[in-house]
């Protein structure tokens, strides 16, 4: 078994394609035999499960409220009960498991709860080689410590000039969270041929996903986007990205 998973965090402004990329990446990793992958939905507008075609009955957010306010079954202490409920929240699917974080709580003190949840997360993470986290631009769960530091941060953006400001802001948050610049990469999405992607200085995007009618069709039909046909342009590009990530992860384990 692997001792240390390779953690990929997908961040970006809402609507840029984080969930689309996350689900296609998970699918590619699973298809190349890197299974099971742990899929973490850390976006409060949780819909990664839909993109992957599974259903979720409970998020860690709702579970936490319950597990800390309810009477616990006899013979169990609160600690055991939370661990039990945590395991129940994990969805096991074909080639991947999924856990949804739900909404981060308000300002009340949940320190004990959060410590316990991050303990459960750390324990869970050990069972996987790859973890893909679909998260919001602010990366709140990372700053709160409920999920660990990524080995790779992918910032998804539209290829236009307007996306640049968000890219810079997320880079800044990531740096404040202690992430090395070498681990931060930009992915352009919904690229249309004939247009030039915005200049991002001396960096080059790690991937450019084309605008893909198959992605749009899946959206309109409300079918899981991860199941678009293998020849779909966005899937091909994500497949190549998954290959890059796999070789990076190899260096990571051997170092
Ligand atoms: N490459 C693409 N081609 C066509 N439509 C896309 C592409 N990527 C994302 N979309 C569409 O853009 C919208 C937002 O994508 P989504 O992955 O949900 O973004 P986010 O998770 O960042 O909010 C969805 O309607 C999705 O179908
Ligand atoms: Mg999303």
Instruction: Give, in order, the helices and strands.
Output: EHEHHHEEHEHEHEEHH
CATH fold-type name: Rossmann fold
Please state the overall shape, judged from the principal axes of the Cα atoms.
globular
Distance between the termini: 17 Å
Helix and strand content put the structural class at alpha/beta
Q: What proportion strand?
A: 15-25%
What is the name of the CATH superfamily? P-loop containing nucleotide triphosphate hydrolases
CATH architectural arrangement? 3-Layer(aba) Sandwich
Care to describe what's here?
A hairpin with a 3-residue loop joins strand 3 (91-92) and strand 4 (96-100). 41% of the residues lie in helices and 17% in strands. The protein has helices at 18-31, 48-52, 60-69, 78-89, 111-125, 140-143, 163-176, 213-221, 233-254; strands spanning 6-12, 37-42, 91-92, 96-100, 130-135, 152-157, 184-191, 207-210. The protein is globular and about 65 Å long. It is an alpha/beta fold. It has one domain (6-254): P-loop containing nucleotide triphosphate hydrolases (Rossmann fold, 3-Layer(aba) Sandwich), CATH 3.40.50. Strands 3-4-2-5-1-6-7-8 form an eight-stranded mixed sheet, sandwiched between helices. Helix 3 runs antiparallel to helix 4. It binds adenosine-5'-diphosphate and magnesium ion. Residues 12, 14-20, 189-190, 209, 211-212, 215-216, 219, 234 line the site of adenosine-5'-diphosphate (ADP).
